[in-house]
Every structure is written in C-alpha cells, then in structure tokens.
Amino acid sequence: MMVVLLLLVAFVCFSFCLRHEEKYYGDTHYIRLLRKPDFIEFSPNDNSNVTILWKRGDPSVTLDKKFIMLTSYFTITKLTQKDSGRYIMRDKDLKEIYNYTLEVKATAKGYYGKPGDSFAFTYRLELNSCNIYFFPESERQPRKLKNTIVHQGNLQGGLDKSGCTGFDLLEPCGISKKVLQMSCNGRYEVRDQNDNPALVVSLEVRQIKRYFEQKPGDRFEFTYDLEPNSCNIYFFPESGRQSGELTINDTLVHQGRLRWRLDASGCTGLDLLEPCGISNEVLQMSCSGRYEVRDQNDDLAIVVSLKMQRK
C-alpha cells in the first residue's frame, strides 16, 4: 500500500508540478506533452499578459510559425528572451494540467589576451539585425556605459571615449581587432533587432610583466609594439617616490619622443628604440626600479622591473 501511494504521489508531481529549463538564444526547444492539451497559454517573464499560443481544432489561433504542435511535443523554434516565461497546458474545461517554465539565455564566452594580441568573434545573425555593444571595464569607464560598435550591420565610429578603437566588421555578425589595448577590457554584447542578447563575450586583457636583474655597466633594453605617437614610458625609481606619483622627471618617453630631464633620478644615457622602447648602453645603480609603457589613453601595456645588483 505504501509503495502504491509513493508511486501515485510521484506520478501526480511529475504530471502537475512546475518544470524549469534553461535554453540558449537561437535554439529549438521541444516541450514533451504527457497528454495532449486543448489549450496552450503563455505568460512572459517581463509582463503579466497571457497569450493563447495554440488551441485544438482552431489553426487560426497559432499565427506565429515559430510554434509547432506535434504528436507528443510542442515545439518552439528560434528562441529569444521574449520566449522566457510560463507555458500552461489546459484541458477543454480550462483546467490546468501541466506547467512549464522556460528561461532563454545568451551564449556566454570568455577570452583572455594581452596588449598587442588580435581579437575576433562572430555570431549567426542576419546582418540587418546585427547590433554589437561594448561595456568597458576600467576605472575611467564604468561597465554600465554602453558604446555602440555595430548598428543594424553597419560599423559605427565614436568609440574615442572608451579608448578601444580600430574594429573591423566580420560577417555574419561580428567584429575583429588586430591589436588589443588595455582599454578593450570589458563586455561585448551581440543583440538582435528587438534588443535581445544573443551572445555575451567577456574580454580580459592582462598586463605584460618582465623582470631583469643586471649589474652596473651592463646593457639594458626593451621595446613594445605600440605606434610611436601612442608611446609613453614612465620610470619609478626603486628608492624614490611612491608608485603612482608621476612628475616630469619620471617621464622617459612622451608620445614617441624621448625626454632628457632625468637628473633627479640619476638614471641617464637612455636612447629611444622603435616602435616603443628604450635602451641604456651603460646601466647605473640609480636605474633600478619599475618602467611602465602606457598607450595614448594612459592604459598600462607592459611593466618592466629592473633590479640592479652590486658587482
């Protein structure tokens, strides 16, 4: 008797309890029907409206071709976030016989890179439905700020505020960038013509760090792939000021031009290296410290630490 009761409870729960599933944008989803209903209603997550999607014997009710009734399944094609909500199956007396909750999410991808790397992604959306937005992540540009990269399949300008520029359009709906900058850190969203997120790409551009240990009289050099007019190099002496305090004496290179006033630090004899670097033929103990290469937006590209050892 107890076994029969447990089986009955399990059957009732399976037949009537709420089911929940998560699917991705663009998928086709099949809702299995335990018994064929007479009505199927839909209550979306974003409002309280209830729509009849299907009615037995009345084909005029199902106007949207994305909904297909099969023998044992109710099919929803080309899913978007607008399909997220509660699907209610009812009998001819409008009695609820089955509940089903569906949540549609954007596909999520994550990328890691370093300054100078290439970056690209694309998605299967018609070009005229293609919109791509960039939400930068930096101290100067909070992630909530939306920058339009592509609008209705057309590449947009006006990304100077974010500092991440130089995108090319990829078909069917994507972008590429040959040289990443630190300012390209953030979230990229591909959305359709109804502003539904189809793809979310998170990009983390990581700083390059290099370490050197050398002696007075040694030769020292480094360079980085930045355009000369975007090249800025700063020096923080090991025994000097706190990091972050920049003065004119800390600036080795500004917009591709070598600065000569380094008497305060005592590290002299520097030469400019292309495309964005410096060299020193004869190191001094006073050259010990941290060297930072920053782009035109003051985004950090590479950190070089030099430790001088006594002979």
Topology:
Blueprint: H1 2-16, E1 19-24, E2 29-32, E3 39-44, E4 51-55, E5 67-69, E6 73-76, E7 85-90, E8 96-105, E9 107-113, E10 119-123, E11 131-136, E12 147-151, E13 154-155, E14 167-170, E15 173-177, E16 186-191, E17 197-205, E18 208-214, E19 220-224, E20 232-237, E21 251-254, E22 257-258, E23 270-273, E24 276-280, E25 289-294, E26 300-308
Parallel strand pairs: 1-8, 9-17, 18-26
Antiparallel strand pairs: 2-6, 3-4, 3-7, 5-6, 7-8, 10-15, 11-12, 11-16, 12-13, 14-15, 16-17, 19-24, 20-21, 20-25, 21-22, 23-24, 25-26
List keywords for this structure.
single chain; 311 residues; six-stranded mixed beta sheet; elongated; 1 helix
Can you walk through the features of this model?
This protein has 311 residues and is mostly beta strands. The protein has one helix at 2-16, and strands at residues 19-24, 29-32, 39-44, 51-55, 67-69, 73-76, 85-90, 96-105, 107-113, 119-123, 131-136, 147-151, 154-155, 167-170, 173-177, 186-191, 197-205, 208-214, 220-224, 232-237, 251-254, 257-258, 270-273, 276-280, 289-294, 300-308. β23 (270-273) and β24 (276-280) form a beta hairpin. The chain is elongated and about 95 Å long.
